[in-house]
Amino acid sequence: MQKVIGDFIHALRHHGLPVSPAETLDALQATQLVGLDNPQTLKTTLSLTLAKSLQHRAQLEELFDQYFQLQVATENSDAEQEDDSQAELDAKDSDTLEEQNNSQVSDSGETDAAEDSDAGQLMQSPLGQQLLDDDQSALQIAIASAGQAQGASEMQLFTQKAQVSFRIMQQLGDQQLNQELAELAQDDGNLALVESVRQARTRLREQIGDYVEQQYLLFTKKSGEQLRESNLQKIKLTNVDHSHQQQMTRLVQKAAKRLATLHSRRRRVTKRGLLDVRKTIAANAAYDGFLFHTKWKSTKVDRPKVMVLCDVSGSVSRVARFLLLFLYSLQDVMPRVRSFVFASDLGEVTDSFDKDEIEVAIAKIMDEWANRPTDYGVALDDFKQLALKDIDNKTTVIMLGDARNNNGDAKSEIWAEVYKRSQRVLWLNPEGRYSWNTGDSVMSEYAPHCSIVEPCNSLRDITRILGSLLQRA
Fold first, then answer.
1. Are 445 and 410 in contact (CB under 8 A)?
2. Per residue in 330-353, is it b (16+ CB within 10 Å) or e — as a string?
3. What does the DSSP assignment read for 403-442?
4. Ramachandran angles phi, psi of 50, nearest 5°
């Protein structure tokens, strides 16, 4: 019982339901009281002890129906076998009467019984006997037992399903059965028996496939999704194909929401730090100067004012798209974000984000500004006219670009003026460091006028850099 409930709780946690160790103990104690005999009572009991909301309860009940379809049968298999043995003993007393009643059976019935007896004697392997008996309950119990032994609940990838199914079949005795069927097939008189067993074995394989699929959905599917998400966070954004665009968009919004939740919390005034003398004296004025209550200074966290310049030319446009999406999702934390995009000419697109949905806004931006030759000199001239006067020491300027200028004038003096005014300038380059200053890259002219220069070509990089920005704001 303890293993059954423990594995079920493992399945719940795998699907995102929070279950604490204390709740696990409560569920075990409650299950010992109600038992496993009544599924509906057990489901209600586990819902009361493990579910924290109506949504969690609905999810628990769905998983319960999937999980206990085989697990309860496995847990009760020993009891069923004992009951079967007792039933056989009781049946012996009635064998004499049954033989007397069957003394008038027709010749054809006696022939069929003889054939069944002969077939049972021909099949010597345990699996063959089970298939001939066609005891579905015993077969399901054997499948569940073999599945536990072969790690059906410990798969990591969906590609392991076929391998686990094969191992379960082998543990049940498929190899011995194959040899036995090959020997029987040599006698033409056994062909009907061999064909019947082979059909039963095919049905068994389907049942094993269903069992492994169930275990995959319970214990592995979420792990596979988490593994894919983890890999997508590390993959270069310039290599993300269209089939993963939608999933990457969800991951970006999820990461941005996590950062927003983390940095939008108000800081509590705790009993530590610097003593606020003025507030402490005022709070204890009624106690003749005795300090019964102390007040501590709290640090005010200013939300950063951010200007973002995104190169949307060529392969850089993919990274720019995800960065703009990330910043759009952080508006609650960084409400003062001004966004600019450029290939050659530069334009402000802040109003587009305010008016349109993010997907519509980004599509319009890419159609209007992307797919042009890159000219950082022209872009910086435009930025000087549009926003340089608004930059102060509370402004963070973020540039996303590869600094490849098609051998044009870099006009790094404008970027130097930006750095002089802000003192907090981040340059995020989608290319690796080994590619900087090669070909038409002029990264060396801009790097001295930056607070931070880092490669940024994955969702993990964007999350880390913007998280650091919010933390230091």
1. yes
2. beebbeebbbbbbbbebbbbeebb
3. -B-TT----HHHHHHHHHHHS-EEEEESS-GGGTTSTTB-
4. -115, -30
Tell me if 73 sits within 8 A of 141, measured CB to CB: yes
Residue 338: its H or E element: strand 336-342
Tokens of 371: 């797919």
Contact between 371 and 401 under an 8 Å Cβ cutoff? The reply is no
Q: Is 288 helix (H, G, I), strand (E, B) or coil?
A: coil
Distances (CA, A) of 124 to 118, 183, 416: 11, 12, 88
**Which positions ≥6 away from 365 have C-beta within 8 Å?**
312, 324, 341, 349, 352
CA–CA distance from 373 to each of 222, 292, 301, 349, 414 (Å)? 44, 69, 41, 19, 20
Single-letter code of the amino acid located at 378: V
Q: Which of 468, 471, 467, 232 is nearest to 326 (CA)?
A: 467
Pairing between β-strand 305-311 and β-strand 395-400 as defined by DSSP bridges: parallel
d(C-alpha 433, C-alpha 446), whole Å: 14
Banded pLDDT at 224 (limits 50, 70, 90): low
Q: Which of 380, 238, 365, 245 has its CA nearest to residue 314?
A: 238
431, 455 Cβ separation under 8 angstroms: yes
What tokens does 323 get?
């960065």
Structure tokens at 13: 């946690």
Return the pLDDT at 298.
Answer: 67
**Could you tell me the pTM of the whole model?**
0.53
**342-393 per-position pLDDT tens digit:** 988 898 888 887 777 777 888 888 888 877 788 999 999 999 999 999 998 8
Q: How far apart are CA 262 and CA 258, in angstroms?
A: 6
Tokens describing residue 367: 């159609």
Which residues does 183 contact at the CB level (< 8 Å), separation at least 6?
A: none
